[in-house]
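Iron-sulfur cluster carrier protein, Stigmatella aurantiaca. Tokens?
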Amino acid sequence: MSVSERDVLAAMSKVIDPELHVDLVKAGMVKDIRISGDAVKLKIELTTPACPMKGKIQADTEAALKAVPGLKSFELEWGAQVRATGGAGQGPGQALLPGVKNIILVGAGKGGVGKSTVAVNLAVGLAKHGAKVGLLDADFYGPSVPMMTGITEKPVSPDGKTLTPMNKHGLKVMSIGFLVEPDQALIWRGPMLHGALMQLVRDVNWGELDYLVLDLPPGTGDVALSLSQSVRAAGAVLVTTPQDVALADVVRAKSMFDKVHIPVLGIVENMSQFICPNCSHATNIFHRGGGRKAAEMFQIPFLGEVPLELKVREAGDAGLPVVAGAPDSREAQAFLEIARNVAGRVSAQSVRSIPLPVMQAR
Ligand SMILES: Nc1ncnc2c1ncn2[C@@H]1O[C@H](COP(=O)(O)OP(=O)(O)OP(=O)(O)O)[C@@H](O)[C@H]1O
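Tokens:
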């Protein structure tokens, strides 16, 4: 008994992507169906190479195909194609950066919570999963990306108009710190700073990127606000520390993004727990669970927690982010999981914002 493409599509339309809440056929993820007799080969194209749901999608796909009457064997090929939020070439952000599919803002209600550490490791994590990633450090108060990535050279401008980003750890990197002395940026007035930061967004030759991770200035001041407003971002990641007093800052940051209609992708709790390197005892120095509590309060996803760990600080100071230098460590695994969760949330935004390709059963 031979199997028809219609049977295969009918089976695949019962598999729901748990992140996107839409079936694989409607989401346009089922490709290249090749049937020969009672065997089928097909390709599943995920919406990100960092898909947090791949295991579940694979198990459900296999179960669905096993239930197709007459189908004796199947072979699955996996691919990934990151989609653009808002549709490529639409909206102010995409018009500014036509080759950039998704801009991810990393923000925090206040300084020092590890926003840059999260931005750097998130970017390296997404790249490690196989995505094309850029990292833009717009934190003029303390541009730490040059140090955290170990980049000491300055970017060049071959045509005198655009800047070539630096390349490190599989990322394209640009920082306000490459171009301006921090004490100089600090005395600039808001509009001048905004202009300089927009130049960094616009006049950098980013090329084609799946994700541009943008490390915002801390807090909810004018510059963070106007920058968030000027780029059409897929969403924002909020970084916080776990103690209850940090909650007020999260509330402020959330309302800033609400004001400019940028979806908050979720909350990362940094410096969650300290594990003693000598006796392995866990201490909740800054308490624990504040990030999760805030996520529940706003009904937004909790993206993960990062332990307070000496190696994270040392890696940042040494210019070799933990995800690049010690990818198997507990802290790097935490960042990699956060990267998967962020990628999943961005995919959900992209599916929400563009019409889905519809594959007709023949
Ligand atoms: N999970 C962690 N464990 C240990 N040290 C950490 C952790 N996260 C961040 N740090 C360290 O804390 C310091 C502040 O982190 P970072 O610069 O990322 O914070 P920030 O919120 O971006 O600060 P700023 O507001 O100054 O930009 C850095 O020295 C960094 O290495």
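Residues 330-353 form the longest helix (24 residues).
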